Amino acid sequence: MERDPREAAMPDQPAVPEPSEPRAAPDAELEPIDAEIVEPAEPAALTPPPFVPTDYTDQGVPTLDYVRDKIEGRSATAMGWEELRTAEVEEAEKKFAEREEKGRAKLEELRRQMGL
């Protein structure tokens, strides 16, 4: 009978170690813990949260201030974009539009060739 080479490298020990001593039951020698009993506190009176003004009325309609701020914000954003617009940006947009048009033309050509 041949021995496996892996067995030769390992001493003759069982694969799973056996427990050395049986353990005592979990409740066997436990002492009670001294603890103080705390009575539950009385529930605090519920107070409504403080009023926080919102951008909408109780009926769900936006307030005039909210609408004004939103319009002013969009206007400021548009003005900022116009200030950033330069000749380089316009040239890049033209190149992008040309590339998109060439891509659409090529796609249409391929569709015609495939008969779609």
Give structural notes.
This protein has 116 residues and is an all-alpha fold. The protein has a domain at 60-116. The chain is 47% helix and 0% strand. The protein is built from 3 helices and no strands. The longest helix has 28 residues, at 87-114. It starts with a helix and ends with a helix. The relative contact order is 0.03. The model has no long low-confidence stretch (mean pLDDT 80). This is PspA domain-containing protein.
Structural class: mainly alpha
First-to-last CA distance:
73 Å
Shape: flat
Give the radius of gyration.
40 Å
Report the portion of residues in β strands.
under 5%
User: Level of helix content?
Assistant: 40-55%
Mean pLDDT, nearest integer?
A: 80
Let me know the largest β-sheet: none
- What's the SSE pattern? HHH
Q: Tell me the number of strands.
A: 0
Poorly predicted runs are none
Given the structure, what is the number of helices?
Answer: 3
Summarize the structure.
The protein is mainly alpha-helical. It is built from 3 helices and no strands.
What's the topology here?
Layout: H1 5-9, H2 64-84, H3 87-114
Key descriptive features of the protein:
116 residues; mainly alpha; 47% helix; flat
